[in-house]
Design brief:
With 144 residues, this protein is mostly beta strands. It contains 2 helices and 6 strands; from the N terminus they run ββββαββα.
């Protein structure tokens, strides 16, 4: 199974291009993903992961993702090679995005502007969290 789940901040705005043969949209960006542990006395380290989003996912990314935003990406790892003009072989490993999500809270001020809400809106049939038939008080024992 080849599945990657990442959460990090965009290091730059997504770059959009189109394929030559089929004119398919491709959005590329990079995520700074913090490492889990910090060595004592050192700053937190981050890995910079290249992400590629195709078609509708790429369109969504190019329209709503901006530098500095925290996002989540679900996809697959892919490696590829190519030869440049000088005949030198290049290797790259990247994540092909299959799903993308906003990971900033709305309080952070990094949520998209009103046109996202008007375009995608909220489903009024979905419970908001308070409409659930189950209530959990702070005194309840939970099995987890």
């Amino acid at each position: 199974m080849n599945k990657v789940i990442l959460m990090g901040r965009l290091t730059r705005d997504p770059e959009v291009r189109y394929t030559q043969t089929t004119n398919t949209l491709v959005a590329s960006f990079s995520l700074a993903v913090n490492r889990r542990f910090v060595r004592q006395g050192e700053e937190r380290q981050a890995d910079f992961i290249n992400i590629v989003a195709w078609n509708k996912t790429g369109e969504f990314v190019s329209k709503y993702f901006k530098k500095g935003q925290q996002v989540a990406v679900v996809g697959r790892l892919q490696t590829r090679t190519w030869d440049d003009d000088k005949g030198q072989k290049h290797y790259i490993t990247e994540v092909i995005a299959e799903e993308t999500y906003f990971a900033d809270s709305k309080k952070d001020g990094n949520a998209p502007s009103g046109d996202f809400d008007s375009s995608f809106g909220t489903d009024s049939t979905m419970p908001t969290g308070n409409d659930s038939e189950f209530e959990v008080s702070s005194g309840d024992d939970l099995p987890f």
